[in-house]
Design brief:
α1 (about 25-40) packs across α3. With about 130 residues, this protein is mainly alpha-helical. The longest helix has 20 residues, at about 95-115. The chain has 5 helices and 2 strands.
Length: about 130
Amino acid sequence: MADPENEILSSKSDIKLVMNPHKTSTEMIELKNLILHGFPAGIDHNNLMEVLIYCIKHLASINKNLTGQQKKKLIIDSILLAIDETDSSSLEQFEPLIKIMIPNVIDNLIDVEKGKIKLNKKIKHLCCGCF
């Protein structure tokens, strides 16, 4: 069933035309615009992680009453919206992969930030010179 806000009724018939298949929020549009402003050349395979980190930092810097799950969904939807609006056709085929991969990447980045995952573990050397 289509969203009534995004439908137009034809004056000659009862045919409904769906104008926007993606439901968008003001937060999603704002984040998408920030992505497009921060990455004017568009999103591609080389900068997808940088875009993701940019979004996480932005959401952490503003005071929104969003849960972690809501922030993840907002980031994913905003990135996909930015990909749709730019010439990132090579990434459009990876949309299902992005939807699956990005939440796990966000969780891992948060775990690294909280110190739950240590990327560079220091090797302890013994005093007697043994390794």
